[in-house]
Amino acid sequence: xxxxxxxxxxxxxxxxxxxxxxYQKLNVYASQAVDPQIKQIFTKSAQDALNTKQKLISxxxx
Length: 62
Description:
By secondary structure, this protein is an all-alpha fold.
């Protein structure tokens, strides 16, 4: 993979931060949900956000 330029690096960091924020918020929503289906949706969405964040971080490690 070619080296990232400054703009690409800045955008990648922004995306990683946004997915971390989404992960944190969705976990809070899941913990507060009473309906099991809603809780499951928030939990899965949080996991998806975490997975995407980890994939984005892998671009920094290459």
